[in-house]
Amino acid sequence: MSKKNLKAVDLKRVKLISGLLAQKNKLVRKEVIPYQWQALNDELPDTEPSHAIENFRIAAGRSEGEFHGMVFQDSDVAKWLEAVAYQLTVNPDPELEKRADEVIDLIGEAQQDDGYLNTYFIVKEPEMKWKNLAECHELYCAGHLIEAAVAYYKATGKDKLLKIMQKNADLIDSIFGLEADKLKGYPGHQEIELALIKLFNVTGEERYRDLAKYFIDQRGQEPFYFEKEWEERGKVNHWPDFKQNTEREYYQAHAPVREQNAAAGHAVRALYMYSGMADTARVSGDQSLIEACRRLWSNTTKKQMYITGGTGSTVHGEAFTIDYDLPNDTAYTETCAAVALVFFAQRMLHLEKKGEYADVMERALYNGALSGMSEDGRRFFYVNPLEVKPEVAKNRNDHRHVKTVRQKWFGCACCPPNLARLLTSIGSYIYSQNEEELYVNLYSDSQAKVEFGGQEIEIIQNTNYPWEEEVEIELKAEQAAEFTLALRIPGWCRKAALQLNGKNINITEHLEDGYLRLKRSWQNDKLKLILKMPVEKVYANPEIKEDLNKAALQRGPIVYTFEEVDNGKNLAALTFAREAKLKAEFEKDLLGGVTTIKTRAKKVDSLGWEGDLYSTQKPGSREVEVKAVPYYSWNNRGEGEMAVWLNSN
């Protein structure tokens, strides 16, 4: 690992004070974590039962019964534990820690003597262990539990879960590899790769790093392992309608990863894999892996990403399709995929110090990820379309995946706890550093402590970003320390200004790859950064046919949408009025406090069309005022139409 590579400033050293990210972080701590604990224990009325905790009780011998839920149900518990760990890192809570310790004791009791740990196979199909990697998520669940173990150890210093998962990882290492007596398989759903790198980082055990590299290198090799194991188990599938031997792209197994050029297959699996590739490249310096990450990043974000940072445009396989295929009303854009894109973006930033990575990280966070949770933290979207007409969604089979209101829980509940673990750890995405540089990636009212040259530096951000343009930054230290402070100038910002201790700084002279870099001796200094946030119309690449002659609104990092509650029905009839002003206004009592946008639009008039389906007479139109709200906030005021893109002359 190069000393010049960045790493996240430890979560323990960052404190969120106020603003949007702090609000969401607090919401998860106060509402989401307790709510999801109820869900995991089947205590929510009128919801699909989870049975996740009960599965561990049965596996541990505390209860009798049958396994219930998805084959990957263990991962919901793991992600809940990981979110708890991040909260305990910055908000000590003895009662929550006691509950987490009890869950860890239960997990330890469920683990078998050889280290095996997966409640589905312990309880339901013990004879099928390691025989259906393609479909049954053994390695995926192990990966999530490893991530939880690392997070909990770093939060509390307690190593019980870490030891449990080291024993499990050692078992996996003894089973998989290129040696003659080992299985040549790899996970159907990637996750363990990035988890193993975390385990390597905290333990220093190189076998975990090497196992992650093995799983990455083995994918896409011939013969196709998933077809081989399918034949060996009598061509029987866990999912009866799954076509095992024709879905190589679904698994990103259509070619060795170093030869892949475009995002393909299941979007979450792909982005977890790319994150693991970037992690492995970072600790190994593998240039061919770095080049593959660059290619896959470029294709994902420049040809297959929605304006919201959503990815995965089709419900079939929850997958990427082809370049520029980005339909709005049938978009799948799973919440987990937006979360995974945040992971990938941060890892690319730590490989290469370029603002474009943080720009996408911010876009996916503020739009595609935050939209997955309601304002009260008790309702969730799995799918995040960019256009909804409730009557269509409820009556057309090709829209059946689109929910018109957030759900209390899901039978497949991967997204709610995934979003929870992201938002509880969000402090670790704000700052990155190496021995010589401190990067400010996200702007949020916060405090952090870092070290340079043996000196502790406190950095304080005072801002109401993303609603306001001004960010005040203060650095405090008992003694001066020399390092480079790098402030991100977002790609969406066309005009920025900076003052250092009251003196204007020429941004152009110091701008490099999207960051304004200032190298000097820092001690007690104040900066004022202005990031101009005019409301702008955004247009899509003409290759995206669904958005031709349309525009969306964006202010700063926030993408906006129009809702029926503000603008009436038939949003498709709206066209932005020519030269109409775009007025931004902060409404503190709306949706938790948001900036809204008002403008004028022409709306096609339906008067005179009663009883007629077609006419040679062109419809008339009238001018109306329209209002847009942040995309992430839609559907908090009842069911109705929604559209990100409106017609534009």
TrEMBL record:
Q: Which SUPFAM superfamilies match?
A: Six-hairpin glycosidases
Q: Which residues cross the membrane?
A: none
Name the record gives this protein = Glycoside hydrolase family 127 protein
Q: Which InterPro entries match?
A: 6-hairpin_glycosidase_sf, Beta-AFase-like, Beta-AFase-like_GH127_C, Beta-AFase-like_GH127_cat, Beta-AFase-like_GH127_middle
User: Which intervals hold domain Non-reducing end beta-L-arabinofuranosidase-like GH127 catalytic?
Assistant: 14-427
**Source superkingdom:** Bacteria
Q: A GO biological process this protein is involved in?
A: carbohydrate metabolic process
Non-reducing end beta-L-arabinofuranosidase-like GH127 C-terminal domain span: 535-647
Non-reducing end beta-L-arabinofuranosidase-like GH127 middle domain sequence ranges: 438-533
